[in-house]
């Protein structure tokens, strides 16, 4: 009898814990309010370029903000900085006038699109041979991104843009190259239309080193067919 009562007590305790535990999708009211506030701000200032669902399908075709690779690679601090400071030589203006609270709400709304945390690993230190990186770039990257990194296709990223490079860590650039980006020309299944999937880790580091050291010196915004785009798109 005593064992039965103990078992019953354990069962009831488990049921109570399950009933009182929030669901995986549960969000505290304060966080929900912040997301709702961010959605209003997004609808007013962002939807024209980034689209209603953040797919980059707005009238100006901006960055796909709901991209899981993007959301797994860029922290809230990174996104805040981009919104607050904008990106020179692109159509991403500064939104610092929105002030910190509103930008934080906007970041929360964008973060709410994240449905998965992708395990995207990169070397802790990226050291490469720029000369070999140039050779590989000319073999695998130049068709889409151009000789000066200005982007030759409608949605091929202007990866030579110094502002873009400055706003990304070497690891973020490495991940974009190694893993690709869903729903872009730089899709994971392709990882670069001409075969970035064929490159090993060191060769990718060589390419990133070339871009950061040398290609930025060649970049000419006048050659870019879409100064609105950053590397995170493609």
UniProtKB/TrEMBL annotation:
Q: Which SUPFAM superfamilies match?
A: Cytochrome c (SSF46626)
Check the record and name the InterPro entries matching this protein.
Answer: Cyt_c-like_dom (IPR009056), Cyt_c-like_dom_sf (IPR036909), Cytochrome_c-type_DH (IPR051459)
Which keywords accompany this UniProt record? Heme, Iron, Metal-binding
Q: In this protein, which residues make up the domain named Cytochrome c? A: 33-114, 128-215
List the Gene Ontology MF annotations in alphabetical order: electron transfer activity; heme binding; metal ion binding
> Gene3D superfamilies under this entry?
Cytochrome c-like domain (1.10.760.10)
Name the PANTHER family on file. ALCOHOL DEHYDROGENASE CYTOCHROME C SUBUNIT (PTHR35008:SF8), BLL4482 PROTEIN-RELATED (PTHR35008)
| Protein name stated in the entry | Cytochrome c oxidase cbb3-type subunit 3
